[in-house]
Write a structure and sequence with these properties.
3-stranded antiparallel beta sheet
């Protein structure tokens, strides 16, 4: 079993049985696993990070009306089906945060967007694996407060990698 498959299986186990699962008790009773796009190596990227000079503090509203503070840190650029696109990378403390929504948002992917935590590499680049893109907890249960994807991170292209919309009876 490869690392991505193991990651997905462990996440399903966590959602199904862990007390901190975002699913309600009713959802867990019928939970058959999350839905994912098939692994796509074209979306497992190592990218240059173009830092914003200076990085600025921004407030990002959450689904419950709260505000979270992030540092608008830098920008990554890549292409999807031959189309150049870019996303802003945020930072909170020492961790990168990449909220994004793609052209499938609201149909095949969660309407408010998905999240990633890019990995900082020793050479200054970022490892961004969209196959690990995940839905925020508010996609499963409205009691969670999740940052809303900023307009600058809404892509006009389809990112067919990572987690798909959650379907529950």
């Amino acid at each position: 079993m490869d690392a991505l498959e193991r990651f997905r299986r462990e996440k399903d186990d966590f959602f199904r049985s862990h007390p901190d699962s975002p699913l309600t008790a009713d959802q867990r009773r019928s939970f058959a696993g999350l839905r994912y796009f098939p692994p796509n190596p074209a979306f497992d990227l190592t990218l240059d990070l173009q830092p914003y000079e200076p990085a600025t503090e921004v407030e990002i509203q959450t689904t419950t009306g709260e505000v979270r503070i992030y540092e608008r840190f830098g920008r990554i650029a890549f292409s999807v089906d031959g189309r150049s696109v870019g996303l802003t990378v945020y930072r909170s403390e020492d961790e990168f945060f990449l909220p994004f929504a793609d052209a499938l948002a609201g149909s095949e992917t969660y309407g408010a967007g998905r999240y990633l935590e890019p990995e900082s590499l020793a050479d200054g680049r970022l490892h961004v694996d969209f196959n690990r893109a995940y839905n925020p907890y508010c996609a499963y249960n409205a009691r969670w407060s999740c940052p809303i994807t900023p307009a600058e991170n809404r892509l006009p292209v389809a990112v067919r990698a990572g987690e798909m919309t959650f379907e529950h009876d």
